[in-house]
Amino acid sequence: MSRTSNDSSWGRRKSLNLLPTLNSLRSSDDAAVKPPRTLKKPQRAPTLFTDINHPDIAHAAGDSRTATPVADSPRFRRPSLNLRSSVKRKSYSAGKSSMQWSSDEFPGDAGTGEPLSATPSSATSLGFSEGTVEGMTPGRNVVLHGEVQTSAGVFRKKKEYLVLTEVHIIRYKSQTKAADAFSAVPSPSGRPQGAKHGATPSLGSFSDLQTLSDSSGDKDGRISLRHVVASYRLDDGKPYFALDVCYLDEESVQSSVLTLQFSNPEERDLWLKHIRGTSNEARLRQRTSISAFNIENAARVVERDHDYDPANCAIYKVVQRHTASKSSRSSTTDDLAKLSSTVCFLAIGVHKLHIIQLVKATSRSQSPSVASNNAQASYGILNMTSVRVSESDDAVELTFRQPLQPPKTLHLASLWSQEVAARLYTAENFLRPECGHRLLKFIAPPEVEDLIAPSVPTDEGHGCLDRTLAAYSIAYGLNPANVRYTINYDCEDGPRFDLLPPSDTRRPEYGPLALLAIMRALRYNESFGSISFAGTCLDSLNGLRDEHGREYVCLRTKRGTPIKLTEDELGRCCLLVQEIRALAATSKRLRRMDFSGCVTAKAPPAPQTLEEEAVRTKDIGCGVVEALVPLCRHQTTNVDWIGLNGIQLTDTDMDYLVGAAVDKSCHFRAIELNRCGLNDRSMGLILDALRAQENTLEAIEIAGNTARLDPVTFDSQLGMFGFIRKLNLSYVSRTSGNEPLLTAETLLIWRLQELRLSGTPLNSASVDAVATYLAHPQSRTLRQLHFDNAFLTGSGIATILHSLQQNPGQPRDLHLNISQNFLARGLEKVTKAIADGLAPSHLSMRAIEYREESSFRKMLAALTKNKTIRSLDMSQTALPGDAGEDTCRALARLLAENDTLQELDLSGEDSRLASSRLGAGINDALAGLKQNKSLHTFRIERQRLGLQGASTLAEVLKENTTLRELHCDNNGIPLHGLTDLVNSLIDNTTLVYLPTMRDGREAAFRSAEATMKGMSEVEPLDAPTHGRTTSFSSASGVRRGISSVKRSAARAASYTPSFPALPSSSRNSSAPDKSASATSPTFSASRTRQMTQGPVAAPVSFTVQDIQTTHRLLSEQWDRQCYRLAQYLERNWCLLNDIPAGMEVEDEKFERPQSVGSIGKVLELVKSETTPRVEKDLYFDPATSSQPQMSEVGSTTLMGGKHPMSFKQFILEEGPESPDAIEEMEARTKQLRVDTSLDRFEEPRTPTQGFFTA
Q1: Which of 79, 387, 475, 661 is least crowded, fewest Cβ atoms below 10 Å from its Cβ?
Q2: CB contact at 8 A, 751 and 725
Q3: How far is CA 151 from CA 148, 259, 853, in A?
Q4: What is the pLDDT of residues 471-493, one digit of tens each?
Q5: Beta strand ranges found along 401-495 (DSSP E)
Q6: C-alpha angle with apex 129: 123 to 135, nearest 5 degrees?
């Protein structure tokens, strides 16, 4: 072919032959590629076409250092780039067809594949017959052909003639060349295409065809349709009509883009339609569209993001389309970006969509500025706001937006665009199964609906809340495990969702994204009748607005009823108002919402100038009232019980609240307004406004406000309501006067279930009114009556008890709370009423102060005789001192003789502000539980039972067969005590709850650390000014002289030990004497000799690693016992619920030690295996500076008591050099004995420990 019209650009084309190497990819990680050879520039082989899919040919022309990866071959030998030696030539016959093909070279046909090469064995020119080119059989159909302007390089735009067949897009430089190859293409001269008289194209013409598209990646002038990834319109703002065809050869891991430009849109659309159709047909003929190597790589990327599930993962080939450039200057950059691979993989995992770039190899000839450096990206599926699938091409647009951030749109294209859209729709529906209305815009052709899989019913409870909550949390970049909640079934309007504090203790409050994830997960959920955010701070959402979008603004209810507010009004609200409003409107079952203590009132800023005063903004309020009240007024929600306890209501909230209360259409059942800061004016407005709800109001909750109530006015206001079930008037103030706060006539109007007057002073008239009401049969529905801290005396309480009895011999099923009252005045009347059986079934007497111990004994005697009380709370009882022997015997009789009590609470109070305990004598009183046959739940916390109390409880559990729950936490019970309690469960098969003594574990950790710190910091008394430093060599330590030992022993004799001793861990010492206690600070003679066999070493200074080792050893011992405890409790629970369970529990001998190692033993082990370090000064050696006298240096508190510990074991680790020194040391050691009696050393014997012997 002549170079007439293209002479000016021929050199540039030839120089740009290296550009295809920019897309060369690195080999597979699993392939063992040999080092590349360094070759000289090879001569071009006389071949017309080269198959880019053949694994034996390197396709980077001009680059001899790039090898082609083969995913299926674990060991791949790099072929030579010289085609003469690497390509096996075919036989050639001049008379007939010019080429002979094997039957496996046509992938378009069944059982055929593409040609590897078309190189004859020997000839200076190549012969062609009509219709045989590129492996095309004579019967191959031409779908479309024509002249098109193409652009496949950086600066390369030229006219070519394209032929679209069923399996390829073939490019020619002229129509003549295409007509020579295909009979369906007419010749431009009009001459009929007959026999060519054996004419063959010259080698120069072949070279022209060879360089058709060297820079486009299709080295043989054709594009296999099975490699096409997408074809789409190119809208780059330029004055022509173009489309892009992107294709990927996975075997060579090379992708390219071919741009076709047309003069009119009709021609472009015609080519686009046929290319899409034939590409889809070729795709459907393939068994697999993605290679195993790329699938594995994509799966690993998704798995690293913790989003991989083999049963719920899909991978597609896609193209990241480039948006139109804003100026012509960026066209070169667009071309460079287009030249680099835009083909990637799209993986749809469980919760995210992942964009995975091709794995590329870095070539030496590759330009750093052009090299693709795109990182992997992922987007939460629930962040997806819109899906747009084009009907005319393969383009698809996915828009994602995180809260408080602008949206981001992914411009993609793929032959699988409809499958991608259907998969995303299914994934979104799977993660939000309860969503009544789609929260994303889904625009797709009708064919996509046929691809959407139907919803599969699931057994997951609570509306798949966990699934949706996890999806939202992951989409927002949060840890789903940080969200904690519980579901309460035993409540009104249940089940109730209760949000708990986050599991991360470093962040005690949820952030705005976490709150949005929780609230949006609860939308459209029909599993809960109540939702409680009580105690959760929602201030981060109050006043916060999302200016970047309104996708989550709720506009209609779940039934589809529009909310009677304009979209602009709904969108202007803060996020807290939007989310609460959406929760209330999208659930038909939801009736109650509790926001107690959730929002802190935000007062508007004070004006600084007169202008600011004139335009002073109104406070934003708490947000809860603004969200719920309009829905109630328009009857677009079923929520009619609102909890606002602890929220300081502002003027804005009061305006909303009063305006809704006067509207009968709201149908409020209750508005809880406890501790809301209501004054006299606001309280009067609320009570007057609530008169409109007289037929629906069921509860009045106005406790803890500053308003002062006038009994006469207040009684008339409450008399308007006829269906009150709950009345809470706790801690309210009233005006002075002798009138009762509520008259008996008003109380008899209602069928009360709960009456709370806690903290409200009650005069005698109020007590008489309540007693009259209790004596009437109308009060039989009452279940809760609270008079705690109501300044009642014993006489008033006796009046209440007498009024409770309606049927003699039958106890009143009622919980009466008379805690924190003055029972001492008129105690005889109260005890007589209790002894006579006038008390109800549940009685609470917490924090009762008895000025005389005899008064408490009278109460115990009355309770012992009582036969009506089933649940008794006597916690925090205050006595003038520790309980005496008579009181302990009276308590023991109560525990042993009372046969009606099922629940008993004898817990104490141990805080800095108050302390109320029964003393050490309670340990003996607990023995009365051995004879008890009715008690099921026993609470005895914060009584400092210690090891002795735990041993007593262990003995009780061996004999008691009725106790189900034992709450004995916060008693300073050490590991010894927990072991005794666990061992008692070997024979006990009824107990199902026993705490793990976390306070004892924490105390052990603190004690061990403080002990180690004291052991390393203690220094001798009267130390000289200069001390001597002991050094050691690598072979052996330098031994100390006898004089040093004598001085050390003398100082030890004068020193008062303050820690229990640790046995020596010297490497040269033998086993210690078994008769000596592990915690006894006294040594026998034989033990002293054994401990003085080597040189005296310096005291060990514990490092951070030693402290961590100590914690680990202690944790292992505690965890072992906790594991045993869980095994026994699970066995007992199964037996209690008639579930088959074996009596024997997996309990190895090492898990049931006869005695548990103390902290002394743990420190001994740590000291023997301590971290090597430079030795410090000896404990008894002179220090660099004298220290003041310290009587109890390094003492610490262990399990609630102080234990003396001495450091003499460090002196005796290594003995002196002579026998005389040994005898002197034995004499000195006798002076180190300390008293180990139980009154000074609080570590009594336990059932699993023997006596300690000196």
Answers
A1: 79
A2: yes
A3: 10, 5, 103
A4: 999 999 999 999 999 999 999 99
A5: 408-413, 441-443, 484-488
A6: 90
Tally of CB atoms within 10 A around 495:
16
- The answer to whether the CB of 975 falls within 8 A of the CB of 955 is no
β 784-786/726-728 pair status: unpaired
Q: Where are the alpha helices (DSSP H) in 1169-1253?
A: 1208-1211, 1219-1230
E strands of 841-916, at which residues? 842-844, 871-873, 903-905, 909-910, 915-916
Residues 426 and 371 sit within 8 Å (Cβ to Cβ): no
Cα 321 to Cα 328: distance, rounded to the nearest angstrom: 18
Pairing of strands 384-389, 395-400: antiparallel
The structure tokens listed for 114 are: 């593409």
Q: From CA 521, how far away is CA 919, in angstroms rounded?
A: 51
Instruction: Of 605, 623, 307, give the one whose Cα is nearest residue 471.
Output: 307
The dihedrals phi and psi of 755, each to the nearest 5 degrees, come to -130, 115
Contact between 223 and 258 (Cβ < 8 Å): yes
Alpha-carbon torsion 438, 444, 446, 448, what sign? negative
Indicate the helix (H) or strand (E) that contains 256. Answer: strand 254-262
> Which tokens hold the place of 19?
């550009």
Q: In sequence order, what E strands does 506-605 have?
A: 530-532, 592-594
Q: Using CA atoms, how far apart are residues 618 and 828, in angstroms rounded to an integer?
A: 60
Region at 1151 (left for phi over 0; alpha for psi -120 to 50; beta for the rest) = alpha
Q: Are 568 and 550 contacting, i.e. CB atoms less than 8 angstroms apart?
A: no
pLDDT < 50 stretches in the chain: 1-139, 154, 194-217, 325-341, 362, 364-373, 614-615, 1019-1098, 1148-1156, 1175-1219, 1221-1222, 1225-1254
Let me know: does 1243 contact 1079? Beta carbons within 8 Å: yes
Please give the pLDDT value at position 607: 57
Distance of alpha carbon 727 from alpha carbon 741, whole angstroms: 13
Look up the pTM and report it. Answer: 0.72
* Cis amide linkage into residue 495, ω under 30° from 0: yes
Of 598, 603, 597, which Cα lies nearest the Cα of 579? 598
pLDDT given at position 360: 65
Return the number of other C-beta atoms located less than 10 Å from residue 1099's C-beta. Answer: 22
**Exposure of 1105 by Cβ count < 10 A (0-12 exposed, 13-18 middle, 19+ buried)?**
exposed
What is the H or E stretch that residue 671 is in? strand 670-672
560 Cβ contact list (under 8 Å, min separation 6): 436, 437
